[in-house]
Specification:
By secondary structure, the protein is mainly alpha-helical. The chain has 15 helices and no strands.
Length: about 325
């Protein structure tokens, strides 16, 4: 198969999927603690910006995808719809309500670290536009989550290595883009130092637990992608050689086999489509980091293509996958190094 690229037609297809659910309030799975009867409110009341897409974090990364697609194809058939959405949603009073929600003691761990990372990834993407209004409006929310990283990471003695929302390597990797574009050197250093503290001594990763039944991330590959993003190239190269020393032999073999999905109407089983897409993203990014003369590069690129082939046909069809999978497809196809 030839490499899949983000054509305008594909970008419009992805955007239409997201536009169909970012303002769809129900069904909805809130991550919400009720401290009293006053907290029994609708998703739109709780989160006036990110109330759609089944859950808050999926709504956030769907907005990221729309921003990416708008930047790549600013004159596409859906560009005006995306701009109108952003103008309607990224406004001061709605963002202030999102910030107010986070100020409650019961929201201290809200969406940690998955939603934290995606919100900062969205904020980073918005800095790429000549228009400043969207990034300026969302800046208070981004600042809140950046501070949560500063407060939490020194307390986090251990990483979380699961293949779901709680994976800490994913949170570090996504926050790194925000720290870079905002030139927050202190935050970048904190992310890098935390990654080294958590993962720096890891070697000969067996990946024996992959995949579990509801993974949508590879705990091995997202750790490697985190380190690729945060370490200088030479330092990463040495670490990567120790961490996955047998890639040239396609080992660990489990990382090279796309996951099988048996029921896409089951939200947990549908996660495995996401695993294929997120592995494709990691494989591609890691391959590019190796350099063109590295014998492992074509092996990793082949793994990326096969995982993308397995996941891309299923981004729409059942809402359990439709509300989020296109974002990971966009990462796999168009992520920047």
């Amino acid at each position: 198969m030839s490499e899949t690229i983000l054509t305008e037609d594909l970008a419009v297809r992805f955007a239409r999927v997201a536009l169909g659910h970012v303002t769809r309030e129900y069904p909805n799975k809130p991550d919400h603690v009720l401290a009293g009867p006053q907290d029994a409110r609708t998703p739109r009341e709780l989160h006036p910006v990110f109330f759609g897409s089944y859950d808050w974090h999926s709504c956030v990364h769907s907005y990221w995808m729309l921003a990416r697609l708008l930047r790549r194809y600013p004159a596409s058939d859906v560009a005006s719809e995306i701009r109108a959405l952003f103008d309607a949603q990224f406004v001061a009073e709605k963002v202030a309500a999102e910030c107010a929600y986070l100020s409650a003691p019961t929201a201290r761990g809200f969406k940690r670290p998955y939603g934290w990372g995606w919100l900062l990834k969205l904020a980073a993407e918005l800095t790429s536009f000549d228009e400043t209004r969207w990034r300026e409006q969302i800046a208070p929310l981004a600042a809140t989550f950046a501070q949560r990283y500063r407060d939490f990471l020194p307390l986090a003695t251990y990483p979380v290595r699961v293949g779901t929302h709680f994976n800490t390597a994913f949170g570090l990797r996504m926050a790194a883009d925000y720290a870079a574009v905002t030139q927050d050197d202190a935050l970048s250093a904190l992310l890098r130092d935390t990654a080294l503290r958590w993962y720096g001594a890891d070697q000969d990763c067996p990946a024996w637990g992959e995949p579990s039944g509801d993974d949508f991330q590879s705990s091995a590959l997202i750790e490697a992608e985190c380190m690729r993003r945060l370490l200088p190239p030479g330092e990463f190269s040495s670490w990567f050689d120790r961490f996955l020393p047998r890639l040239a032999q396609r080992e660990p073999a489990t990382l090279f086999r796309p996951a099988t999905v048996t029921d896409r109407s089951d939200g947990k089983l549908a996660h495995l489509d996401g695993l294929n897409l997120s592995r494709a993203w990691c494989w591609r990014s890691l391959a590019v980091a190796l350099g063109e003369d590295d014998a492992r590069r074509p092996i990793l690129l082949d793994a990326a293509r096969r995982h993308l082939d397995a996941g891309l046909p299923h981004i729409a069809g059942d809402y359990m996958g439709e509300h989020w999978l296109a974002s990971f497809a966009a990462l796999a196809i168009d992520a920047e190094g």
